[in-house]
Specification:
- By secondary structure, the chain is an alpha/beta fold.
- Among the domains are: about 45-180, 3-Layer(aba) Sandwich (Rossmann fold), CATH 3.40.50; about 200-355, NAD(P)-binding Rossmann-like Domain (Rossmann fold, 3-Layer(aba) Sandwich), CATH 3.40.50.720.
- It contains 15 helices and twelve strands.
- The longest helix is centred in the C-terminal third of the chain and has 26 residues, at about 375-400.
Length: about 425
């Protein structure tokens, strides 16, 4: 029986799509190759703290609704927990735990002094007013006031949260602290201590690693065909910057559908279309394509910048890209990884490819704490330096141990965390 129709296959597919299971498998493969002391593995494998809060919120119709919120700190060994907060109906504790772990490794692989954290609230923000979202955000912040802090846990935007959300968190925390604390969150508006270049940082980081990956396999970026799944903040910025570098963007998609043009899309015009219509669908000079089929288009570079579990054992063998740069968190399952590695696809993993956002969040935190802000050009130059160096750190690890970039990135990150544990010691 087919895996998609058999009961056993359903269980296997469900396990493959479990982000916590994927995070565990990625960790265990890399840790095994490092031959670490099992006691250190136990220390860094599990989250140090997982908090569940119930949030009563006064709705616009006069009723009260109780929402469930989560905040997980996976590690604070290398510094304060760092990670976004997402608002989505499908948020689960297991998903947040996986994302928090990935943040630990992401911060370590680029060498910034943060641990990993993540948060989420089970809600549908598309069905809530701005006032309801503000009251929900402030209640969540107030309930976690002893968790958050510039030296302990620094949130940021994630799925369905933005600069405004961060401003509400900063203000709520500051009211409790009785003084303004800009460094408690990152991804804030510029007028509240945000950093120049922060909005574009994740997409710009994708550009930097794609450049290095193209050089590694001898691909001329000026003639490369690129497909971008997810034309939100990360995907649209990456597509725009790659087009300016001379690449041909032959397909893009968003939640409403996909479009393609084998001769290349006019990204400047597409950005204007999206601004006017809120979707890529219907763009002139393109033909529609199913969002899932978009991943299988002929291309040199594929950038999955949507949600988790987009490339699985079902479609991995049909991927035609030579390079996959993961703009999203966890877009490729562990089973799909094996298929892609066997096919010779260079997968630049999420903990490296999309780490530009947390890197510039670190810059924002530093600027807030010193009260001195950098020009955008300086931010971008510092970001490029870190992303390029980190790519080559991972490449050296991959070459030395003859492993994939994902395994190498996890090995590098885990080693950096363990090195700090060994130096600090374990307080008991």
């Amino acid at each position: 029986m087919d895996i998609e129709t058999s009961p056993a296959g359903d269980m296997g597919t469900q396990k493959e799509l479990d982000p916590l299971e994927n995070a565990r498998l990625q960790f265990e493969e890399a840790a095994a190759r490092l031959k670490l002391d099992p006691s250190f593995i136990q220390i860094i494998k599990e989250p140090r703290r997982a908090t569940i809060v119930k949030l009563p919120v006064h709705m616009d119709d006069g009723s009260f609704r109780v929402f469930t919120g989560y905040r997980v700190q996976h590690s604070i060994i290398r510094g304060p927990a760092k990670g976004g907060i997402r608002y989505h109906p499908d948020v689960t504790l297991e998903e947040v735990m996986a994302l928090a772990a990935w943040m630990t490794w992401k911060c370590a692989v680029v060498g910034i002094p943060f641990g990993g954290g993540k948060g989420g609230i089970v809600c549908d923000p598309t069905k809530m007013s701005k006032g309801e979202l503000e009251r929900l955000t402030r209640r969540y912040t107030a309930d976690l006031i002893d968790v958050f802090g510039p030296e302990s846990d620094v949130p940021a935007p994630d799925v369905n949260t933005n600069e405004q959300t961060m401003a509400w968190i900063m203000d709520t925390y500051s009211m409790h602290a009785r003084h303004t604390v800009t460094s408690v969150v990152t991804g804030k508006p510029l007028v509240l201590g945000g950093s120049a270049g922060r909005r574009e940082a994740t997409g710009r980081g994708v550009l930097f690693v794609v450049r290095e990956a193209a050089r590694r396999i001898g691909l001329d970026l000026h003639r490369a065909r690129v497909v971008v799944q997810g034309f939100g903040n990360v995907g649209s910025v990456a597509a725009d910057l790659l087009a300016r570098d001379g690449a041909h963007i032959v397909g893009v998609s968003d939640v409403k559908g996909g479009i393609q043009n084998p001769d290349g899309l006019d990204i400047h015009a597409l950005l204007q279309h999206v601004h006017a219509t809120k979707s890529v669908v219907g763009f002139h000079g393109s033909t529609p394509i199913d969002g899932k089929k978009l991943l299988e288009l002929p291309c040199d570079i594929l950038i999955p910048a949507a949600l988790e579990n987009q490339i699985t054992n079902v479609n991995a063998s049909r991927i035609q890209a030579r390079i996959i740069a993961e703009g999203a968190n966890g877009p490729t399952t562990t089973q799909a990884d094996k298929i892609l590695n066997k096919a010779g696809v260079l997968v630049v993993p999420d903990i490296l490819a999309n780490s530009g956002g947390v890197t510039v969040s670190y810059f924002e935190w530093v600027q807030d704490r010193q009260g001195f802000f950098w020009r955008e050009q300086e931010v971008n130059e510092r970001l490029e330096h870190i992303m390029v160096n980190s790519f080559h750190d991972v490449a050296r690890m991959a070459d030395e141990h003859q492993v994939s970039f994902r395994v190498a990135a996890f090995m590098l990150a885990i080693k950096r965390v363990v090195d700090v544990i060994q130096i600090r010691g374990v307080y008991a």
